[in-house]
Design goal:
329 residues; mainly beta; 4 helices; 49% strand
């Protein structure tokens, strides 16, 4: 009976919170502040817009460690992304020419978070493309533009409130990206972005799972033949205990692009990544390695050719990551 009542309380609270977050997302999405679309050379594009996901994951920095049971936590991760930013350039070829703006990137991220007994939490994350290489925008712009080998990421500030019902947790969050990164290195943007979201998770002795639904507001910029603006995010993850301290499981990250696409090619951009992770845990630390692949779920078509399914810009072909987390109980 107690578990039944706890479940009812969880559903009632979720029903009260969800309409407010969805209303804010709709207002931001369909009534953005008036501004002209910028080109990528003016604004810059975040090469890794999905680096925040759900726990336990090397991509979540602040929001993942803020959902743990610790009073404070810190996390660092190092990832290699294989061709994380590619665009298709119109050419004599039937399907155009694909240009790898960033062929490879080594990304270092760090975050700290503080949690209070009241349920509130706050965190800060920062990082950099410590080394990257690629064609840059020379093939797109027709001008000689060398891609910088180093670039800082936009720092992230995040606050949240979490509520627990036995093994089930619900967290509402708000995040703000400060435009202090490097647009020239495609690791930051010139305008701030805001994000709101909800996370649900359940923790058991041998199994845990989590779901995140969030909305990221971004002023529209132009990426070659495409427009890049606000995004939704749906992330689903599961972990299973193999032996005493060893956990493994999959994670799926889906970030549909909401900006209306220009021209007659009727593009539907759906950046997505599928990951497999292996983690070793102790009471105060976690070491995790993962491997992921970008999925060709995006669709491009025009009035003549048949629809083609491709990887969206910012979806890497593959990626390798290693992360280390420390928790203060």
């Amino acid at each position: 009976m107690s578990e039944y009542c706890a479940g009812l309380g969880y559903l009632r609270s979720f029903g009260r919170v969800l309409p407010w977050w969805l209303a804010i997302a709709v207002v931001l999405c369909f009534n953005p502040p008036p501004c002209r679309a910028e080109t990528l050379s003016e604004s810059g594009l975040e090469t890794v817009p999905y680096r925040l996901s759900i726990t336990p994951s090397q991509f979540l920095t602040v929001r993942g460690i803020a959902r743990s049971t610790a009073r404070a936590a810190t996390q660092g991760s190092l990832s290699y992304l294989d061709r994380p930013l590619s665009v298709v350039i119109p050419s004599a070829e039937p399907n155009g020419t694909r240009s790898h703006v960033v062929t490879g990137a080594l990304v270092l991220e760090m975050a700290v978070a503080r949690l209070w007994a009241s349920g509130f939490d706050a965190g800060f994350g920062l990082g950099a493309h410590v080394y990257q290489f690629g064609e840059g925008w020379s093939a797109v712009s027709g001008q000689r533009e060398q891609l910088p080998s180093f670039g800082g990421l936009d720092p992230l500030l995040e606050v949240g409130y979490r509520k627990l019902w036995g093994r089930t947790g619900l967290r509402a969050l708000g995040a703000f990206y400060v435009p202090l990164g490097s647009p020239r290195a495609l690791s930051g943007e010139k305008r701030p972005r805001g994000e709101i979201g909800l996370l649900v998770n359940q923790l058991w002795s041998r199994v845990e799972w989590g779901v995140e639904l969030s909305f990221l507001y971004r002023p529209v910029i132009e990426v070659s033949e495409f427009a890049w603006g606000s995004q939704l995010k749906l992330a689903v993850a599961g972990r299973f205990r193999i032996i005493e301290r060893l956990w493994a499981g999959p994670e799926f990250l889906f970030r549909p692009q909401l900006a209306r696409q220009p021209g007659a090619h009727h593009a539907v951009l759906l950046p997505s990544v599928l990951l497999a992770a292996l983690a070793y845990r102790t009471e105060h630390a976690q070491l995790m390695a993962s491997y992921g692949v970008g999925l060709p779920l995006s669709r491009v078509s025009d009035e003549i050719s048949k629809p083609r399914y491709v990887r969206a810009p910012t979806s890497p072909i593959q990626q390798l990551s290693l992360s280390l987390q420390f928790m203060l109980k």
